[in-house]
Fold:
Amino acid sequence: MHFDYGYMEEGQLGKPYNIGLLGRLIPYARPYKGPIFLALVLTLLITLFDLSIPYLPKVAIDRYIFSFWYLVDQKAAPSSLGEDFSRRYGHLVDATEEAGLGFISNSKLKRIDPRDVRRYQEEGLISRERFYRVTAEAVNQDRAFGREKPIRGEGPYLYMPAEELKGVSPRRIAALRHKDITGVGLVALFLLGLIVGSLGLNYWEYYLLEKAGQNMMQDIRMALFNRIQGQAIRFFDRSPVGRVVTRVTNDIENLNELFKSVLITVFKDIFLLSGIIVVLIHLNWRLALISFILLPFVFGLTLFFSRQAREVFREIRRNIASINAFLQERLSGIRIIQLFVQEKAQLERFKDLNHRNYLTSMRQIKIFALFMPSMEVFSSVGIGLMIWYGGGKVIGEQLTLGSLVAFIGYIHIFFKPIRDISEKYNVMQSAMASMERIFELMDKREVMGEQRISRGPMRAEGHLQFENISFSYEKGFPVLSDVSFEVKPGQVVALVGITGSGKTTITSLLERFYEIQEGTILLDGLDIRDWDIRELRSHIGLVMQDAFMFAGSIAENISLGAEEMTREALEAASRQVDLYQFITSLPNGFDHEVKEGGVTLSAGQRQLLALSRALAHEPTLLVLDEATSSVDPETERLIQESIFRLLRRHTTLLIAHRPSTIQHADRILVLHHGRIVEKGTHEELMALENIYFRLNRIQMNV
Structure:
């Protein structure tokens, strides 16, 4: 099985990250499709409310505030013209008690073709005089005026010439037009109801989207962390920890912003823009076409700035990842920095990274400093066009004032979604850059292959065999060359050699941290590539030179979260390495909190804890990789005594330098430049007076 370990540099993104990127979110959104669908329905309702709000002032102005009526006198016009009018527009006329007379409202008059209106007025079919429609009851109550007899319509209404109300007191006008005033009040109440309803719908929409978004981000973060844990060690050799941490923290949060602030907003904006276009065309298609003149410029400007901003945001994400990687590395090595008095040098390097990020951020600010005011200018120009062209139509009585007000309101709303996108464009670009990196890491599969056949050993005994193993980290630089040896159950075999001879590489191949390139490793007669990798590692207890401790209790550091491990098992493991007395002397015993990295423990205590951890998981094969190289002689003695007590229960592979640690091994293998050059017991190898002999003399002199 072949695996491609090619590493994509930070920001080097290919086609998979530019095509269908948003589609990668669908599998994570599918479990929450119910809340998302409900949120979309609420978004649709909110959009309908938003579309209704500018239309209500038009209703109030045209129907109640400027509710003019015009007399339609078919008796005063040629019969052919009257018949033509009745056939085409008769449904718009309210009849009166007198035959041949009717009235048409100002708003309905605008539905007639302006050329027809002009012809009808010239022929006397439609009067130029304006009338108010009032109730007969209001006229009867006010006898003070009525110089000209009103025309009675069907029902309780009278049509009074507008000239009759000139000079009349506001109180009397209010009494006559109380129906119109009541209508305006009802429109205002309805508008208030829409606003309150929109407030409630916005609350639930935000809640549902936020809940679904948080659940999705939790799932993506878990999937990403699971993928990171499953990567081969080779991946971590080439990936700075700070960058990996940025993927799981900052980039996931940016993705959450994309979901809740952009995706649903885009759906709402598209629906809103479509609705506005339909309404504008319905109100006056000529005026609508005038307003659409600016659209090519708006979309062209948006496309231009989007291309400019995309690369900037990618560079910002790269800079942030570099800063995080730098901080993680320097904080981990703060003791070395302070020991060698390198604070100033490191500050200068951080200053360079920080300044580079600052310059990139300023480029982003300059882009939006041009983009957002440009959108405001287009919005103002659009409104100016409406006032200029629409105002002329109102003066020419080809458009109602309410329709012009509605047009201005809709134009203002029309540019609002575009302004919203521009305001959130930094969020969108940053989130898209983060999404590229998240799914880039998701797609990276530097993992060990699963077992080639679905079977396991009949019985785990710890029988280890290396057969003609060759390996290199980089092509052309071999680390192991044709290495073969055998460790039988219950044996203690030691590996010794100078630094760089390949000792630790043997343990890495055994644990399948790296894939075997040539040869075969057998554990209990089965190729380790045929083992399930989890099963394989559960049978091997590895204690490394640098014992890593997690922030948590002593018990958690031994069990590593294995819930099936009882307190009795922890105590038994600690007793085997003579650590139980030390643990019980701590303030909280096994519940004593260990700081990150085990900084409050000595090197020997950390090493004994690591050995307890390995034994607590009951391995079949125990591997000690320089486990005593950094401890004092007393701790080394404790570890040695523990090892020799466990000889009958564990197969043990020792990697060490000190003769006192390995001289009692059943067999010692001497590695030199990646090859086994000597084999035998301590006495046999000392008698040869070769490499092993010289290593021992050097250690003894030291």
In short: The longest helix spans residues 343-395. Confidence is low (pLDDT under 50) at residues 1-19.
